[in-house]
Each structure stands twice: as structure tokens, then as C-alpha cells.
Amino acid sequence: MMTKKKIAAIVLTGAAALAALAVGASAVKIVPAGHTGVQVHLGSVSEEVLSEGMHFVAPFVTQVVNMDNRVLKSEANSTSASKDLQNVSSTIAVNYRLQQDSAASVFRNIGRNYEEVIIQPAILESVKAVTAQFTAEELVTERQKVSDLMKENLSEKISPYGITVELFNIISFDFSEEFNAAIEAKQTAQQNALKAEQDLRRVEIEAQQEIEKAKAEAESYRLKNQEITDNTLKMAWIEKWDGKLPAVAGGEGMMFDLSSLTGSEPQQ
User: Fold this and answer.
1) What is the spatial distance between Cα 251 and Cα 198, in angstroms, rounded to a whole number?
2) In 3D, which of 60, 73, 71, 75 has the Cα closest to residue 29?
């Protein structure tokens, strides 16, 4: 039978083994791919960060907080006013990245929820600031320019924290029903005006064509009239004459005189 001393020794050995495992587990930290390990020693954030992979730290006294350095996405819905005081509802999507060398500073000063604390408010402020510089119609027609200015404005706000804007997208711009109706009416009016202008141009061209056609016909008639002389009439008659002189075709003293057509003098 086992004595109490042996049992106590086994218990102590097991406890020591468990303690050793606990110490070993506490000393080994793994930083996932695409992350930076921020070391916190007894509540104090160290400037020395850990790269991705396995690391050994002081057990129990050092905590490692993993900060994500991958490209992340943040979406925001904004309501703002345009330059012409139109209400504009927009949906913005931003891809951003936390730089590795800023991970410790951001964790110390802001925490892991820096998207809610820094990025989301900065997006809304940037959207409102730029939207106010354009009319509602310009927000549609100059959308790329608006997007570039918003991205630039946002970058100026969050880059001091070590956060970079990778991509800025305006998902949608929505306006009031009254404004949409006004835009539709304007487009319809422009289309009608363009159609009327095209129709007028077509009528003018057709009228000009008719004028030119009439001029050509008149000129043709004029030339033909110039060509129709007594001689041409005589020649046309002679060409069609069969060579037979007509008999007396009338009453007393009435004869057809060929001299006027042949050009010969009448015989005495």
C-alpha cells in the first residue's frame, strides 16, 4: 500500500508539472498572419511589437494583443446638404489599413475599436465637408472628382494615427423625390429641345433642297426657251414632213404657204 508520503509526493509532482505547463503556455505567444502583437507588461504598453509567428515572453506578466494589419472595410451612411441646400443621403465604403509601426500607439491611445472611434466619424465629416462644395447635380455629374476629394479629406484626418486609406468608394447618392422629379423634367425638356432643333434643321435642309430643285428646274426651262426659236421650229417641222405638199385645204383663195417653213421665196 502507498503511504501518505508517497501520495503527497505524487500530488506535488503533478502540481509542479501542471504549473510548468501553465508557465510554458503563458510564455509562448503566437501572432497570426497579417497581425502585429502589442506587448502589455503589467498594464504598460511596450513600444516593442511582435511580428507574426511564435514568440516567448515573460510568463504571467506580459500580455500580447493582436492588432489586425490587413486591409479592412468600413461602411458608413451619411446625410448631408449640398451647396444648393439639397438633402443628400449617401453610402460610403472605405478600405483601410493599420500600419504595423502604429499598432502600439493606436492600441495605447484608442484601443482595438479604433474603427468606431476614429474612422467612422472621419468618414462622415469628410462626406459632409465635400458635399457642401457641390450642387446636387454636380455631385452626380462630377462623381469621380467628389470621390477623390472625399478620399483626400479622409486621409488627412486618419493618416496621423498611422491608418492609410487604400480605397474609397461612393456606393450611392440618393436625393429627395422632388429633386429627382426636377432632374427628370429637366432631362425631358433637354431631350425635347434637342429633338425640336433636329426637326427644324431637317425642315430647313428639306426646304433648301426644294429651293435648289426649283432653281434648277427654272434654269432648265429658261435654257430650253432660249433654244426654241423660229428656225428650230421650222427644222422640227421639216424633219417630220413626209415630202408631200398638201392640197388646197380651204375655201376660195386659201392655200398653205410652205415658203415660211422652207425659207424659199414664193414663186411668182
Assistant:
1) 71
2) 60
Question: Cβ-count burial of 99 within 10 angstroms (0-12 exposed, 13-18 middle, 19+ buried)?
Answer: middle
Q: What cell numbers appear for 91 in the block?
A: 453610402
The whole-angstrom separation of Cα 247 and Cα 259 is 15
Grid look-up 494583443 returns: 65
Does the model's pTM come out above 0.85?
no
For residue 263, give the DSSP letter: -
The CA distance from 95 to 92, in Å, is: 10
Q: What is the DSSP track for 77-96?
A: EEEEE-TT--EEEEEEEEEE
Please give the order of strands across the beta sheet that includes 35-41: 44-50, 35-41, 62-68
Tell me how far apart the 2 most distant CA atoms of the chain are, in Å: 185
What backbone phi and psi angles, to 5 degrees, belong to 53?
Answer: 125, -170
258: pLDDT strictly greater than 80: no
Q: Cβ(142)–Cβ(134) under 8 Å?
A: yes
Cell numbers describing residue 216: 434648277
Backbone angles phi, psi at 38, to 5 degrees: -95, 125
- The pairing of beta strand 72-81 with beta strand 87-98: antiparallel
pLDDT tens column, 134-172? 998 899 889 999 999 999 999 999 999 999 999 999 999
Taking only the tens place, the pLDDT of each residue in 64-83 is 999 999 999 999 999 999 99
Q: Which residue has the higher pLDDT, 22 or 116?
A: 116
